[in-house]
Design brief:
The chain is 23% helix and 0% strand. The protein is mostly helical. The longest helix has 14 residues.
Length: 61
């Protein structure tokens, strides 16, 4: 009986580890909770045009 109580207490301890509140889906948060907005996507600029002396891959002839 004692090993069963030890296993049960360890399972209950592990189940509550790190949880700070009710879990919810990001699309449907509870009232009063605002999820942080994601960063705005900024496209990268095109690379500079390769000159006549340079190839597109940067390798020399």
């Amino acid at each position: 009986m004692r090993p069963a109580m030890l296993v049960l207490s360890l399972l209950l301890l592990a189940a509550g580890c790190g949880q700070k509140g009710a879990l919810y889906l990001r699309d449907n948060p509870p009232a009063g909770v605002r999820p942080p907005k994601p960063e705005v996507y900024t496209p990268l600029p095109y690379p500079k045009e390769a000159g006549e002396d340079e190839s597109a891959g940067g390798a020399k002839k």
